[in-house]
Amino acid sequence: MAIPRQLPNAITIARIPLAIVFFVLLLLGGTDGATHPALRWVAAGLFILAISTDWVDGYLARRYDLVSDFGKLWDPIADKLLTGAGFIGLAILGEVWWWLVLIILVREWGITIHRFTLVKEHVVAAAWMGKVKTTVQAIALSWALLPLHQWIGLPAWTITTTVLMIAALVLTILSGIDYIVAQVRGSRAARDVDA
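Structure (tokenized):
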């Protein structure tokens, strides 16, 4: 079955407006969805749907040999906009620590800016550890966004949220270190070739 060549990229770009809509709905829902519970559920559902498209566009691009430099560059950016909206929204609502969010955002956007500086030389695709990090962030955010404490109780929900957020933070830091090490090695190898 043939699919349009630009479909994976279109799915990637669709995550950007979805991130904005999700962010607005999350804030309108209020802390733990107390202001408008239905909006919190819709925001959480929209986040889960949007972050799931990351797997879909990657699968389509690999399966139908549609991997492009555009996709390699914009796929992680769209992910960072979506997850960043989730982390910032939860911090604004007082449900996640600001210090954790700031560390994650500095790492995420620092590496994104670095990728943009290298784009004229080559496009840096996400490494396996970065993909694992994104998956754990998605799970942590999905859990934190869903107001499941109404069924499992606040203590159990809070402990699980804390463990997932700390795991996301640790993987974010480790994948950032992995990226920096890989770039340093690549630069050294390029210098050795030029010499």
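The radius of gyration is 18 Å. The first helix runs from residue 7 to 29.
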